[in-house]
Amino acid sequence: NNKNSPVFSTPQTSREAVNTAVQRVAGMLLRSDQLDKVEQYRRREARKKASVEARLKAAIQSQLDGVRTGLTQLHSALLDVKDIQSSLGDVSNDWRQSINTIESLKDVKDAVVQHSQLASAVENLKNIFSVPEIVSETQQLIEQADLLQAHRKLMELESSRDDLMYEQYRMDSRNTSDMNLISIYFEDVQGLSDELAKQLWMVLQRSMVTVRRDPTMLVSVVRIIEREEKIDRKMVDRKKQTGFIPPGRPKQWKDKMFQVLEGTVSTRIEGTQSVTREEDKMWLVRLLEITRKYVLDDLIVVKNLMVQCFPPHYDTFNRFFGLYHNAVSSRVKELASEELEANEIVSLLTWVLNTYTSAEMMGHPELSSECDINLLEPLLPQDVVGDLLSKYLKTVTSNITGWLRKALETDKKDWQRESEPEADQDGYYQTTLPAIVFQMFEQNLQVAAQINGEFREQVLKLCLKQMNSFLHRYKEEAVNYKEEHLRDRQLPPCYVHYMIAIINNCQTFKESISSLKRKYSPSSEQTDFDAAIERTLNEVAKEGCQFLLDEVFLDLENHLTELLTRKWLTGCHAVDTICVTVEDYFNDFNKIKKPFNQEMTSEALRRVVVEYIKAIMQKRITFKNAEERKEGAERMIKEADQFKFLFRKLSGEDTDRLCGAISAIAEVFKLTDPTLLFLEVTTLVSKYPDIREDHIQALLAVRGDASREMRQMIIGTLSENKVSYSASIQPIFKDITVPTNTMTTMTTMTSMATAKLLK
């Protein structure tokens, strides 16, 4: 037995098989009733054994059949290889024996070539003899514009020439003399080809006209070019095989056709300029409009007519679309390189960025179905557009600066007029300056908006920047106007009215700026110049109001000096005159717009009260007795009421606090019991905490009956118990100075020391 073969059992496997069988039998005979089925179990196991043996035999038989078939095929392949080897040996022997035979057939080969040449010559003999006649006929056909027939004749001539040259090349490619002889004989053929080509190019150059009048002519041209392309391909293929190509081939008329069409389109676009800048300031607008019309009309013709004259694989419409786009782009670049004026830059950029792709031109409904304008390259590179925009902004900046300067000069001349300024529909004085300035801004922004929104924002910022600079000059001129008036108050004759107009212009400027921003800037973001402009306008308006109040108080100066004097005490009419003068001025000041008129009225009241209190603090009078103090106090209370009535009438606002200061001081003067003076002064200080010690000193001095000890006690006590005041309360005494002298200073120091001692 072979122990290494898996087919035979080893002792170990036999034992394992016996053990397995024993276990299996034991499992079958666990119960006594199963002994009756021993025979049944034996037959079942016998069937299983027979089935397994049958499957093993079938598998082994199948493997043996496969091995037998493989051996048979290998044997057949070996026999075939031997046969092939024998045949190759026979072929090799035959080839060696036939070398001499092939050499002996050279004469036959030459005879065959000569026969082929002679056959070609015989075939073209008729054409060869009729070459002059065909040339003449072809020339006549070309002149008669019968291009298809002319091309057919030309093809016959070229075919005869090319066949003869090819046979000559095959027979003896180095024989140039015979080749030259053929070329000379057919020399007129090349001339006919060139002449026909000229006619074709002329038709293509007039293709836009031809396709409308005689589209068959254009179709004929395209057919001729297609024939030539086919012949070119045939000749190029033969050259790859034989090395021979006829003279003038390949003609490449198709490429030449597209070059002609490109040149025609370029000429069409370049020829749109009918006038120059010297002849017409609107030359560029006219040129761009003519270009738009030509391009749109031509492309519609291409779509509706010309496409039908060319083969579909030419993609005619898109090809023409690209030609026109490139031609327009080249023309626009030329225009952009010229020295354009500001309005011309805007016209060009508006046309390039908006009109070109709009429904009025390349985005026209008749064209949009054939192409996607979003795939077009920009007509102008972005850097060129940027340079043009920068140049425009520089020019606009210069223009706006000049226009603003000129507008301000014109407005200054109006300030000198003898007639009052015009009033708006609400009766407020104004000049034409805001309207001129913002009309100019509006025009520039409208122009910028034609280009795009981003550029519009840039121009708006430029306008605001220029406005900020302009307002500083405006402020300076308003100050100069006031100073000029102070040198001679009779001039200018309408100073007050035009100063009112200057103040009103500030409010108009604010409203106009807000209107411009709402209209031309969708974003509500604040620019760098908004706060500066607002601040400058407020300064101009407030200074203007101050100038007008200065004018009022210059007229009141003499009357203010009469207050709290002996003359005043005896019954002068200074306050009556002051009220009449103020009211008269404010009849004109009613022409000031809100909120400046309200602010001005409040400031006028404050200044009147301050001037009145200043008169008290200047100690122009010292009351001699209680009767004078009572009379003076009552007069002060009466005049305070006059001021209350006047300014409540002018402003409609509460005037009690400011006018109440005069009444409170009057109460100090009116007091008859000196022992209560400290309480009255304390009440005054509590109402007006910005009052100072020197003010109290002045009041007590005017009262005239306060002893030194009383003054020292009051001042000392108040200095030890100073009352703080809120910043929200408008101060009255803060800016009022009291004339000082050495004696007053010493008294103050003594009062301070005495107060400490008393404490």
UniProtKB/TrEMBL annotation:
Pfam families: Sec6
A single GO cellular-component term on record: perinuclear region of cytoplasm
Coiled coil: 616-643
Top-rank lineage group of the source organism: Eukaryota
UniProt entry keywords in alphabetical sequence: Acetylation, Cell projection, Coiled coil, Cytoplasm, Exocytosis, Golgi apparatus, Protein transport, Transport
GO molecular function terms listed in the Swiss-Prot or TrEMBL record: SNARE binding
Main location: other
Subcellular location: Cell projection, Growth cone; Cytoplasm, Perinuclear region; Golgi apparatus; Midbody
Swiss-Prot/TrEMBL GO biological process terms: exocyst localization; exocytosis; protein transport
InterPro entries recorded: EXOC3/Sec6, EXOC3/Sec6_C
Family: Belongs to the SEC6 family.
Record's subunit section: The exocyst complex is composed of EXOC1, EXOC2, EXOC3, EXOC4, EXOC5, EXOC6, EXOC7 and EXOC8. Interacts with EXOC3L1. Interacts with BIRC6/bruce. Interacts with MYRIP. Interacts with SLC6A9.
The protein's role, per its UniProt record: Component of the exocyst complex involved in the docking of exocytic vesicles with fusion sites on the plasma membrane.
Official protein name in the record: Exocyst complex component 3
Species of the source: Gouania willdenowi
